[in-house]
Structures are given as structure tokens and as C-alpha cells.
Amino acid sequence: MKTVLHKANTRGHANHGWLNSHHSFSFANYHNPERMHFGVLRVLNDDVVAAGRGFGTHPHDNMEIISIPLSGDLEHKDSMGNVATIKQGDVQAMSAGTGVYHSEYNKQSDQEVRFLQIWVFPNKRNVEPRYDQISIQDTIEKNQFSQILSPNPNDAGVWINQNAWFHMGELDKDVAATYDIKDSGNGVYAFVLEGEVTINGQALGKRDGFGVWDTDQITVKADTEAKVLLMDVPMALN
Predict the structure, then answer these.
(1) Shared domain check, 162 and 121
(2) Which of 42, 78, 215 is nearest to 202 (CA)?
(3) For the purposes of burial, counting CB atoms within 10 Å of the CB of 216, is it exposed (0-12), middle (13-18) or buried (19 or more)?
(4) If exposure means fewest CB atoms within 10 Å of the residue's CB, which of 44, 105, 120, 152 is most exposed?
(5) What is the full DSSP assignment across 68-121?
(6) Whether residue 26 is found in the same domain as residue 131
């Protein structure tokens, strides 16, 4: 088993006033050659967008982009004609493929938006751009890991063009839950959203990241009430 630990206070940080962002991996002006990606997981940004502010229209291509709001509402618009609001309990996926423009805006005048912005390298290039959004509010089961993303359009959660699975776990104190890695070439990057947990003997706190690979299974024990996102991704870049 191999592991990599990224403590919350070692992440890259950029505060633009309207946007306060912490980067688990190299992004924009934060460059760390030892933290470029975890397998095909390229970006994990923990973003706070100020009230009445947002990301102007900007392009992407050949990237799978996943947004998971943690609090507040974020309005999405894109060049495919989609206009939607994503909020806590939603998961959004966008396959940029051949190219797409989009914007994200906090229309609330009195509340900031907190969300995770995640980029995954695709296993197919230049696909037709697509958009997907679901609510997972009523599908998360306590004390186990509930699937919120997969490579299969007919499976639970949103889907992307990559052999990846995301699971969300909301665990009560002292509960231990196991997770079986989906593919022999995959690893799991765990990101602690709330509380404290121990994964395969490693103690982790809020916003810590922990990557595990060359193993078949991990065990997550909740040392307090906790919420954990597991990102099961190929370790080899395509």
C-alpha cells in the first residue's frame, strides 16, 4: 500500500477578495511539482465565492469538471444553453470535450457560496460537450459510502468520461466503514469535509486529503461525527 498525505494547512491559497480558494493540487499561481495531481485527479479546489460575485464566462476543453456545493446557491450558465442553480445537496458534472464556455455566479446578496471544484482528466478526448446535474440530498445513506459519480450513465449519480467513482460518506462517531476500490489500477483520494477520521491508521482532520493506492480496500473510522468524500480514480494518466 502506498499513501500520500496533504494536510489542510499545506494547501495552496489564493484570496482574490471575491474568491477565497484553497488548492490541494497545483492551480493558477500555486505551483508545487510534488502536488500536480493524484492519478487522473487534477484539481481539487475548496472555493468560497462572496455574495453577488462569481466567475465570468471562461473556456474549458478536454476536462471532466465536477462541482459539489457545500453551502449556498451557485448559478451556472454555459454555451450549451444550460442555465441552472446548484446548491448544497447537488452534484454537477460537465464534460468540456471539444470546448465549452461557462460562468458561475452567486446571485445571493447576503450569503457566500462554498463549493468544491474538481477536475478529472478524461479517458476520451474531443467528445461532444455535455452537462449533468442531480440532487443527492435524499440518496446519501448514513454510515456507509453512497455513490455520487461513476463512468456509467445508467449507474447511481452523475457520470463522466473516466473510470472513476465518487462516494460520499456521512458517518456517526465511532463508526467504521470499509470501501472497496473499484478497479485494480485505481487509487482513492479521501477528502475530509467535516470532522475527524482515521483511514488505514492515518489520523485526518477537516479539509485534510489522503491518497491511498496499491491496495484493494480502505477502512474509514469516524473519530467524531464526520463527512468524507472518496474519489476513486485511475492512477495512470491516459
Answers:
(1) no
(2) 215
(3) exposed
(4) 152
(5) EEEESEEEEEETTS-EEEEETTEEEEEE-TT-EEEEEE---SS--EEEEEEEE-
(6) yes
Let me know how many helices (H) and strands (E) the chain has, helices first: 0, 22
Which of 102, 117, 135 lies at the terminal end of a domain, its last residue?
Answer: 135
| Dist. CA 182–CA 179, nearest whole Å | 9
- For residues 58 and 106, membership in a common domain is answered with yes
What are the grid coordinates assigned to 172, written together?
456517526
Nearest-angstrom CA–CA distance, 72 and 65: 19
